[in-house]
Amino acid sequence: MTGMTSNGRRPLLNRRLTEFGTTIFAEMSALALSTDSINLGQGFPDTDGPEEIREAAVRALRDGRGNQYPPGPGVPELRTAIAAHQKHHYGLSYDPDREVLVTAGATEAIAASLLALVEPGDEVIALEPYYDSYAAGIAMAGGTRVPVTLRPHEGRFRLDLDELRDAVTDNTRLLLLNTPHNPTGTVLSREELGEIAKLAVERDLLVVTDEVYEHLVFDDAEHVPLAGFPGMRERTVTIGSAGKTFSFTGWKVGWITSTPDLVTAVRSAKQFLTYVASGPFQYAVAEALALPDTYFEAFRADLRAKRDLLAAGLTAAGFEVFRPAGTYFVTTDIRPLGESDGFAFCRALPERAGVVAIPNAVFYDHREEGAPFVRFAFCKRTEVLEAAARRLRAAR
User: Fold this and answer.
1) Is the pLDDT score of 3 beyond 60?
2) At residue 291, what are phi and psi to the nearest 5 degrees?
3) b/e per residue, 96-121, with b = 16+ CB within 10 A?
4) Which end of the chain, N or C, is more open, meaning fewer C-beta atoms within 10 Å of its C-beta?
5) Is the peptide bond before 11 cis (omega within 30 degrees of 0)?
6) Distance, CA of 212 to CA of 3 (rounded, Å)
7) Residue 365: how many CB atoms within 10 A of its CB?
8) Could you tell me the CA-to-CA distances from 152 to 177, 188, 388 in Å, in that order?
């Protein structure tokens, strides 16, 4: 029997992971290739980041820096740069030797944090819809996932703070937050974060915050790290990443910043995952984090223009568009098109329009909540987005 051991007693896959098969990203990317469609599904840029940072990686390779195992916590140059970044942008002070840990991207940072801090029986609250690795990480740690759903209201997806409070029980160990939020593009406000901080202190909760889109906020939105609120530094693990900010997603360089005790705990799990990774790229990312503010401003402006281009094209094609305040994803409602099943819609869209998108329902425990929503990525070249908009309008 497929998937069974030779004696047929139980499936090969650990039962904690039985709900996680091939990801929707693999399925839709394969569809994009087989239909020669424009892939606006998976969130990676179609151009590389700054040339001087690529050259920094080449220089590190040639100089023999990082070609062997780098230090377990990360190379000192990168840890120092991460601490300087947090101080410069947010006024948060971290000791690069004791309060910074470099990881193999944010995905490992999430997994290591959950494996380190969560035990069987612990409840973990996550904002739904959520990045798919959250569910897998909680499952691998043996925790119980408790979703709190963001729902559309007045053009954006909003958090119901009362619902969040009600979700906390005596078994709640940890809040897993993501702001700017993938896939909805919501950026939690200073006021919302203040209430979350009060709740965490009151109920003595740990918090892991995924802030990989920290520099991709638009219009009047503001990214405010939760660790800066009263009582939060000592209970918050903050996750960052180079991939989204510098358009080098393949380098897999992420990090956490937290207290010495929390960093030590996460490192205890991380060292048995990758141990170390991305040696030469760590030196390059250290230089990237030191780029002038003008780099971050220009990057935001470019993505804001692309957001507006794709949002306008989607609106013209008949979608209801939730204009994101952050990230590089646009969530749409397909019901104005006479559709209600995001899975069926996305599987048919490549043949129908030559464009690939992702059904948001894959990011929900409550699949019915996400059924009519579809996500498009706009971290692509302008001409690609223009072509996608034309195809969608023509297929209307």
Assistant:
1) no
2) -60, 150
3) beebbbbbbbbbbbbbbbbbbbbeee
4) N
5) no
6) 36
7) 15
8) 18, 14, 25
DSSP state of 4: B
User: Other CB atoms closer than 10 Å to residue 221's CB: what's the count?
Assistant: 19
- Characterise 377 by phi-psi region: left (phi > 0), alpha (psi -120 to 50), beta (else): beta
Which residues are within 8 A (CB) of 171 and not within 5 positions of it... i.e. 6 or more apart? Answer: 121, 122, 123, 144
Residue 312 CA to its chain's centroid (Å): 24
Distance CA 65, CA 52 (A): 17
Which H helix or E strand runs over 348?
helix 342-353
Q: Quickly state the pLDDT bin for 1 (edges 50, 70, 90).
A: very low
Q: How far apart are CA 183 and CA 128, in angstroms?
A: 9
pLDDT of residue 18: 87
Q: Which of 232, 235, 179 is nearest to 206 (CA)?
A: 235
Phi, psi of 354 (to 5 degrees): 75, 30
The kind and range of the H/E element at 388 are helix 382-394
Please name the amino acid found at residue 81: A
Q: What would you report as the CA-atom Rg of the chain, rounded to the nearest whole angstrom?
A: 21
Residues 6+ apart with CB under 8 A from 296: 215, 245
Query: Using an 8 Å Cβ cutoff, are 345 and 374 in contact?
Result: yes
Lowest-pLDDT choice from 19-28, 78-87, 257-266: 19-28
CA distances to 109, 156, 210, 232 from 302, in Å:
28, 22, 23, 33
The tens digit of pLDDT for each residue in 53-69 reads 999 999 999 999 999 99
Which stretches of 142-292 are DSSP H helices?
161-167, 190-202, 242-246, 260-270, 279-289
Residue 231, number of CB atoms within 10 A of its CB: 13
